[in-house]
Amino acid sequence: MATHEQRRDFVDKVVLVTGAGSGIGREAALGFARRGALVYAVDVNERGLTETLSLGRELAGMLRTTRVDVSNEPQVGDLMARIESEAGRLDAAFNNAGITGGTHRIEDYPTEDFERVLSINLRSVFLGLKYELPLMLRNGGGAIVNTASVAALTGPGGMSAYAASKHGVHGLTRVAAMENAARGIRVNAIAPGWTETPMVVANSQQNPAFAELARKAIPAKRGAQPSEVADAAIWLCSDEASYLQGHMLVIDGGMTIGGFEL
Ligand code: NAD
Predict the structure, then answer these.
(1) Least crowded by CB within 10 Å, which of 38, 39, 98, 203?
(2) Quick check: is 73 in a domain?
């Protein structure tokens, strides 16, 4: 697995990471900070943020954590006002917080649950973009990455809300990229596959037979480590991805290639 602790290409940059209290967002917040960025690491789960801070002890001062519900417009607005007043700029944002929601056939899916998943996974990305773009524009540009999923490309049974939200993230990403490419802001998405975050690992321990089946179905025969997904998001925010606009980068060990192995 690639580590970039030696690279310092985000020095003097200010980065926002949502869902930074766990999994992919945590690895991304630590990764950006190790590469020199001042990182605003936000999550609804304060305990998770405290753990992220303790894992990044050596990065003292480069990680600023704060509790934000990314589906709540006043909270997102306040966060952006705080970043502007404290740091004066925003160079990159990783809109990553999300939930899976329950698993039910459409006819059984509770409508309130559907709306909650859409609110946390999709409304949050809309709100993120709405408040991040003006701040980035004020200092001449930046890069945004939104977390979609392989469920933005497929139709996983039982997961209508999740798949609809992630297809929506893909659409929002393309519109935001179209509207901002000429203004110096690149907007892209990532589509992770099976990623072994703490929740996925706990579920796998509870249901090892299902986990084994899932891993066998992935051409790489393993899930991703959260840092492998975070590295891709960091790369999309870096100058190395300077000509990528509106792209959704699939990081799935080949899960969505389709076809059959010989
Ligand atoms: P995770 O549960 O480890 O982390 C998600 C974080 O988002 C948690 O810390 C949670 O507290 C936070 N969060 C939830 N609701 C929030 C809210 N309203 N406001 C602020 N923070 C909130 O899971 P993860 O796998 O790291 O998920 C990160 C993203 O990756 C999600 O968007 C998820 O849909 C996506 N994803 C994950 C996988 C996977 O296999 N793990 C696959 C595809 C896509």
Answers:
(1) 203
(2) yes
Residue 5 · residue 27 · CB < 8 Å: no
State the CATH number of the domain containing residue 39.
3.40.50.720
Whether this model's pTM surpasses 0.70: yes
Supply the range of the domain harboring residue 56: 14-196+225-251
pLDDT tens profile 229-248: 999 999 999 999 999 999 99
Question: If you measure from the C-alpha of residue 89 to the centroid of ligand 1, how many angstroms do you get, rounded to a whole number?
Answer: 25
23, two tokens: 């999994």
Q: Give me the chain's average pLDDT, please.
A: 95
3-class DSSP state of 99: coil
- Residue 134 domain flag: yes
Q: Which atom of ligand 1 is nearest to the CA of 198?
A: 3
Q: Which of 50, 146, 149 to mutate to test the pocket of ligand 1 (most atoms within 8 A of CB)?
A: 149
Task: For ligand 1, say whether the CB of 70 is within 6 Å of any of its atoms.
Answer: yes
Determine the average pLDDT of the residues in 109-113: 98
Whose tokens are 């933005």? That residue is 152
In degrees and rounded to multiples of 5, residue 166 shows phi and psi of: -75, -35
Quote the ligand 1 centre to 111 CA distance (angstroms): 21
Query: Residue 4 pLDDT more than 60?
Result: no
Count up the domains in the chain and report the number. 1
